[in-house]
Amino acid sequence: VHKSKLDFFCKLGYGKQDICKVLENLGQEALEDDVLKELIRMGSKPQAVESQVQPSSLKLVARGSCSTAPGSKWFREDESDSSNYLRPIVIDGSNVAMSHGNKEVFSCWGIQLAVDWFRERGHTYIKVFVPLWRKEAPRQDSPIADQHILEDLEKQSILVYTPSRKVKGKRVVCYDDRYIVKVAYERDGVIVSNDHYRDLQNENPEWKWFIEQRLLMYSFVSNRFMPPDDPLGRHGPTLSMFLSKKPVLPEPKWQPCPYGKKCTYGNKCKFYHPGRPHQAQLSVADELRGNTKVSLILVKEGKCNHSP
Question: Where are the C3H1-type-classified zinc fingers (predicted)?
Fold first, then answer.
């Protein structure tokens, strides 16, 4: 039990020391939700998975690390994300799979379509959360399609199973939504789901703001994963800006003024004047008033012999 819990929280990026300390305080039989809450309370921050697996091949950097090892083609963590300014992606696997299966079948192919869409955009930190009991053989009341995809994504360290177990024949399932929001919040990333997580919004005011600002909804159109071009509404950022940490704004292109030096609009002119500083453009009248004031001051101080 201790090893399975340790492995699970290590996959989320938490340090072994913090996990062991919490398990000692709460006991080996503590529920995963309780362990997660205690880690949050302690202020423990998840680190890059590669930093635990291959510390000798990494550079020490400010936020995480990047491995160049052959198995990590799609899963290079913080350093790669920092360089290309793309936000980490946390996918609500159950929500995506059920949406693709028309709320009747848990379609793992839908998860694969979503992962591939973000891969093609260049995102390197992608996590999918799915309850552990989805590994079990499908039942008639909960059909699963293309279940082998879950195994493939788990091998790529993209898919993480949230814990579940059976107690006296009844399944005890940990709240996977809390893992999704927690990891996305810690990573300053984006949540991919059509769920609004209203209960978690009420639970934590910081999470409420984060969910409102970082929830990316989507649709499936003929097996095509399609997020909206305006995730926060028509007056909000574009999809590209929404998925970027530091969106690069285009530099303004100034068009030369057709009137040239004869222009009398001064600082109200919308065109570019190479001959005058753009930030301190004055109209002809303003320049005359300024020159007159300077002359009057000089006369009063006796520093000028001629009258203005």
Answer: 251-276
- DSSP collapsed to 3 states, the chain: CHHHHHHHHHHCCCCHHHHHHHHHHHCCCCCHHHHHHHHHHHCCCCCCHHHHHCHHHCCCCCCCCCCCCHHHCCCCCHHHHHHHCECCEEEEHHHHHHHHCCCCCEEHHHHHHHHHHHHHHCCCCEEEEEEHHHHCCCECCECEECCHHHHHHHHCCCEEEECEEEECCEEEECCHHHHHHHHHHHHCCEEECCCCCHHHHHHCHHHHHHHHHHEECCEECCCCEECCCCCCCCCCCCHHHHCECCCCCCCCCCCECCCHHHCCCHHHCCCECCCCCHHHCCCHHHHHHHHHHHHHHHHHCCCCCCCC
Q: Is the dihedral of CA 283, 289, 292, 298 positive or negative?
A: negative
Torsion 280-283-288-289 (CA) sign: negative
pLDDT digit string (tens) for 287-306?
A: 566 666 656 555 555 544 55
Q: Cα–chain-centroid distance for residue 142?
A: 31
**Token representation of residue 242:** 């929404």
- Provide the pLDDT confidence category of residue 213 given band limits of 50, 70 and 90: very high
How far, in whole angstroms, is CA 42 from its chain's centroid?
23
